[in-house]
Amino acid sequence: MVKKIKVGVIFGGRSGEHVVSLRSAESIINAIDKKKYEVVPIGITQQGRWLVSGDAKAMLPETVMRANHHQSVAIIGDPTQQGLKKLDANISERIDVVFPVLHGTYGEDGTIQGLLEMAGVPYVGCGVLASATGMDKVVMKQLFVQAGLVVADYEWFRRAAWEASPEPIIKKIARRLGYPVFVKPANLGSSVGISKATDKRELSDAINDAARYDRKVIVERAVVGREIEVSVLGNDQPVASLPGEIITGHEFYDYEDKYVDTTSRTEVPARLPKKIIERLQRDAVKAFQAIDGGGLARVDFFVENSTQQVIINEINTMPGFTSISMYPKLWEASGIGYSELIDRLIGLAFERHRDKARNLTSYQPRP
To answer: Are 190 and 255 in contact (CB under 8 A)?
Structure first.
């Protein structure tokens, strides 16, 4: 009998997207090929405690954060252990590959990726650099511009500067960007902390809200256009899916519209001219390569109404995998089903790990 691949699915985490992560992990665990993979569910509480249980459904989504009987575990940065350390029993459990279904800070930002690199465990998704730059909207946009992609005009500043002297910041935004604008924490996702501002008062309130979530705030010119998303899959030779369109139920695609009342709807594939579809796919791959992406990402665009210009908004290096998430929907429309997609992502994780293992870690004279 062929031995099953042991997959550690990590979810939860210390971020504002904790609940979204639980939903994503539940979908993955339910859909993964049980004949090929053995799932080890690993939940991280909002306080940062790691929990493990053999019963995935008991952990997701309600039970995991309340279950006191679950063993505390950790992945330690020792590659000879290569797996979970059960803290209470001082026992190690080998994990073949990790699927870190963690959105936002302490998960999608390079932190968990760095831990897994130290531990020598293959993992699904982007590496440390791509995850970190893909999370920071300021650095991300700077890389996009360098790669020749079109971004909306923006300004950014640190929370400390805002708290010390808000008036010059407001004046600069009004002068350079005008109104309306969108205000966002630089390092977060799932539309957490994002607001639209149409005047000085709303701008001030929006900045204060965004500053609750991150020390860096970004303010972007509002683009009037269609919201289009493209999924990317691969390592050194990534490919892009057909594009899909988000048709919002609110004024913009905010957290409530995505996850609470779900009044938005999607059109997959999006009805767009062939030339624009090709441009979106080309730019999605270019954005993925600009941050040195690996495994997967979802790239979000606007197609501006007045000009039909393709404007890149952001890249998400661990996009949602819930039942309403666009990443798997776009691949399904492009010919890759949900279970097969998970299988490919795990395969890409092993591929990337093997490639990195070729690197020398100490000096050796050339033969």
So the answer is: yes
The residue assigned the tokens 């995935």 is: 56
Pairwise CA distance, residues 169 & 216, whole Å: 13
Residue with tokens 């890759």: 336
* Dihedral, CA of residue 142, residue 148, residue 149 and residue 152, to nearest 10: 60
Task: Find out whether 213 and 193 touch, Cβ atoms under 8 Å.
Answer: yes
DSSP characters over 111-177: HHHHHHHHHT--BSS--HHHHHHHHBHHHHHHHHHHTT--B--EEEEEHHHHHH-HHHHHHHHHHHT
Fold of 154-221: Dna Ligase; domain 1 (3.30.1490)
- Report the DSSP beta bridge partners of residue 1: none
Nearest-angstrom CA–CA distance, 178 and 198? 9
- List pLDDT tens digits, range 46-80: 888 888 765 434 556 554 444 444 566 777 766 66
Are β-strands 244-247 and 225-234 bridged in parallel, bridged antiparallel, or unpaired?
antiparallel
Give yes or no for a contact between 225 and 248, defined as CB atoms under 8 angstroms apart. no
Length of the chain measured in residues: 367
Which ranges in the chain are annotated with CATH 3.40.50.20?
5-123
CATH node for 5-123: 3.40.50.20
Work out the angle between the directed axes of helices 137-146 and 128-135 (0-180°, nearest 10): 100
Distance CA 112, CA 135 (A): 13
Q: What's the alpha-carbon Rg for the chain, to the nearest Å?
A: 21
pTM over the 0.90 mark: no
pLDDT 10s digits, 84-117: 777 665 566 789 999 999 988 888 999 999 999 9
Range 134-150+223-355 classified under CATH 3.30.470.20: yes
Q: Give 24-29's long-range contacts (Cβ < 8 A, gap of 24+).
A: 24/101, 24/103, 24/320, 24/321, 24/322, 24/325, 25/60, 25/101, 25/321, 26/60, 26/61, 27/321, 27/322, 27/323, 27/325, 27/338, 28/99, 28/101, 28/321, 28/342, 29/56, 29/57, 29/60
Distance CA 238, CA 287 (A): 11
